[in-house]
Design a protein that fits this description.
Layout (H helix, E strand, L loop, with lengths): L4 H12 L4 H15 L7 E7 L4 E7 L2 E3 L5 H11 L9
Antiparallel strand pairs: 1-2, 2-3
Helix pairs in contact: 1-2
């Protein structure tokens, strides 16, 4: 079911409120699947990545997502992780 413009505004508003990690993941899932038409089976959440001693928050094809509840506060942490992620072949 495509996202209505009202639901899209709700998602953007909820993300702007800097929710916790799990809520961000849920909203991004809805945005990718219902808003952009990604297949649920194409999304991979919390994939282990030994190279960075952590997990990729979300992976869609060769695009990875690193979720932060407050990017203004956590931008350096996010940026420091990204170069260490391997190129993922999906």
């Amino acid at each position: 079911m495509p996202l209505s413009s009202e639901r899209l505004r709700e998602i953007v508003s909820a993300l702007a409120s800097r929710p916790q990690h799990e809520k961000v993941r849920t909203l991004i899932y809805e945005l990718l699947v219902n808003g952009l038409g990604a297949r649920s089976t194409e999304l991979d959440f919390e994939r282990q990545v030994p190279e960075v001693h952590g997990r990729i928050d979300a992976l869609l094809g060769r695009t990875l997502f690193e979720f932060k509840s407050d990017l203004r506060r956590e931008q350096r942490d996010a940026e420091s992780k990204l170069p260490g992620y391997p190129v993922c072949d999906s």
